[in-house]
Write a structure and sequence with these properties.
five-stranded mixed β-sheet; Nucleotidyltransferase, domain 5; six-stranded mixed β-sheet; homodimer
Chain lengths: ~300, ~300
């Protein structure tokens, strides 16, 4: 089987054996935003043509390729949903050289009825479910961080925090940006930001403090970016991990450096964390693909 | 006396009589950022030269003209401070055609020791103090909204919320911006945003809801900007007005349309509000100038 993790900015393909072993992998900067005129089939031929000619007849895709801007808009299954539900609700896409399907996304609602959507993360969670067990909390940090509750081995519900994207907008497009020249990773400043997020006054007040601490000589410019990062991640973690027992670790899935920051922030908030290693997307594609009736 | 309200992007000058009456006013897009090589004296000559030739020998300036990027960096008086303290701590600036002074800014600390600064707002507050009385809460909404506690007729302390600038960064530089095309003022959407700010989950989670409500067809693109505005102002008001008795109105000082939004948000949070009309900056310059020993 060929598994494809196709996001907004990158394309990753894997040749996966029957037993789930990854035989070969490749990637290219060919995210869906780079594909003109819906020529997705041509990109698959270009980047995996040798595998297809070699006899691969099954392709499973996940990620933003299933969005409105992708190849075909895939379903958004309502939570709770298990891996079997994902495998049973694939969206076929027209392709001349193999059977090709897109994994569905998921939908949910927060406690106040505001809708939630994910597309791509469901496959990553499917990949790490075996190490989470029947019940647990998973965090996938990033531009739009997802906090996912697993119950009875299924994805029960989830919430999203726009932390990474808010960070970039605030660091690059507000007066705080003047302090962000020549920044470097600064763990102490990050910890100070996380600590500050526990104070009263709210995030909008805390943001201005980044500037006033600088003006007062109490936060050096090179440390400001890490402080802001800690402030935002601290706000996210404090609300998202509310009610999680301290002895139940949060499972982190994502880029290693970012996961390390979340481990620090969670620890400061009294929560244990486990960083899931391994490539969650390809693990998930393999697991879902193993449940599909291809014939 | 000539009063000058000189900010980052605009220059406003007033010819003020002994009794505080404004005899003449003019303005120009000559904020301090537009003045090259520190040529502030030349701008004053250019824009008020006729008044100077007419015999005016006193100039009182307030605003960012007293910042590090201005004519001279003025003091930042620690709170609490009264109008007499402001008038007694002016910073002289070298000027050949009149005695010229800059009103000091103010400094404070929030409950956790994070520094606060204002420069220009102290003069606006001086202008509206007579209508506030001995004790009250003043809000000056804007890019960096100030919430100022007045006690015994003096400025007791204040906090800043980076609401306006965060709004611009989020609306213009995140995925939410895609929804903001062709936006118009929408009071219902603003109220929905204010209401949403009371929900649990935190601002970073609520921000993502702007997008998901749109994807779900529950928030139309033209209404998204007002919803986001209500969400942010709601977060600000709920934290800044905490502990204010419902029967004590918040005094709003600022641009009329923005004040109207804050009145709506405060009402939704159970607070009365009074919009201070009149030009607070010139009123303040006149009041402070009246206390200065010019000779």
């Amino acid at each position: 089987m060929i598994g494809v993790d196709w996001g907004t900015s990158s394309f990753r393909a894997f040749r996966i054996a029957e037993d789930g072993a990854v035989l070969e992998r490749r990637q290219a900067p060919r995210g869906i935003l780079s594909v003109a005129d819906g020529a997705f089939a041509a990109v698959v031929h270009e980047l995996t043509g040798d595998w297809l000619r070699d006899g691969e007849g099954r392709i499973l895709l996940s990620g933003m390729i299933g969005s409105r801007q992708g190849w075909r808009e895939s379903k958004a299954l309502p939570c709770p949903a298990g891996i079997d539900d994902l495998a049973g609700a694939l969206t076929p896409v027209p392709f001349d050289a193999a059977r090709a399907f897109i994994v569905p996304g998921l939908s949910a609602q927060d406690g106040q009825g505001t809708p939630e959507f994910m597309r791509g993360e469901e496959t990553q969670i499917a990949g790490v479910l075996p190490s989470i067990g029947a019940n647990g909390l998973v965090c996938l940090p990033g531009s739009h961080s997802k906090w996912v509750r697993v119950a009875r081995g299924r994805i029960a519900d989830f919430t999203t925090h726009m932390t990474g994207e808010a960070f970039a907008a605030l660091a690059d497009h507000t007066i705080l940006g003047r302090m962000m020249q020549g920044s470097r990773e600064d763990e102490d400043a990050f910890d100070r930001g996380v600590s500050r997020s526990a104070d009263p006054g709210g995030l909008l007040h805390h943001l201005f403090g980044v500037r006033t601490l600088g003006l007062a000589g109490r936060l050096a410019d090179p440390a400001a970016r890490s402080y802001l990062s800690g402030l935002l991640i601290g706000h996210e973690v404090r609300t998202a991990a509310t009610g999680v027992p301290a002895d139940r670790p949060v499972h982190l899935v994502g880029e290693a450096a970012l996961c390390r920051l979340y481990v620090r922030a969670l620890a400061a908030c009294g929560h244990a964390a486990v960083v899931e290693t391994g490539d969650a997307a390809v693990l998930g594609l393999a697991r879902i693909g193993g449940l599909v009736t291809w014939s």
